[in-house]
Amino acid sequence: MSPQKSSDLEGLMAQLRAGKTYKGLELPEETLRDLLALELSRYKKPAEALKSARAKLHNVMAPYLGDLDYAQAAQELQAAFSSGPDAVKDTCRAFLQQHDSTRERLVYLEDFYKEIFAICGQPASVLDLACGLNPFALPWIGLPSGARYYAYDIHPPRVALITDFLRLSGKEALAEVRDILVRPPQVEADAAFLFKEAHRLEKRRKGCNRALWSALKVKYLFVSLPRRSLDGKRDLRERMRGLVADNLNPAEWEARGELDFPGETVFWMKRHG
Prior knowledge:
Blueprint: H1 3-18, H2 29-42, H3 46-61, H4 70-83, H5 85-96, H6 100-105, H7 109-120, E1 125-128, H8 138-141, E2 148-153, H9 156-168, E3 175-177, E4 189-195, H10 198-204, H11 208-215, E5 218-226, H12 237-247, E6 253-260, E7 264-271
Parallel strand pairs: 1-2, 1-4, 2-3, 4-5
Antiparallel strand pairs: 5-7, 6-7
């Protein structure tokens, strides 16, 4: 990047951070740099690059608007663990109700993971990519007691709450603030989950899933995508099959298939070797 572009980048980062909509969200520097660097390579004028980056940033950060009150959630979590397993489940269920994707999955949550593990077996290690609130489904997932569960998200307050939850659950705290497109995790694992995010990642950078999936050092990858549009009027299955086909390198994966659930389709793939 030229000195002028570098100067533009720093100035635009300050403008993005100062925007009213995202104040207090602790936007990760690596995400802002990635968004702006890409748009500066596409547009000659910094103002045009900023406008495009803002639109993409909204797509990235929209799920965090109207999010949990994380300070209050931490207190609720502590109280739940003091009360016992039933209270923990109730609190986790309340957290999962906060987002559309995890809320609709509550109806079939136990069957969801049973069908996944019927394909890959009981994993000793899992990467939960762009995890959102998924970690609070752990009481229903049924991972082996010694399994290593890595959770990655770009929202620091959320990662802090997940870390508290894992520690209180007696698990190793392997939650991390990480932009998985900028720094794909290099941990070797039995399985990786990417739930209801791949289509959103494509809006940020078309074709990015191909590089991400290729970079992962996992035996199985499970990518869930919505079956219908948010208004429920459009069937998205063929479109989502196309997304997977466009981003999957057949030379890297020896098997693949689909699992259908009421709110989503899980596309799974097994790596060669």
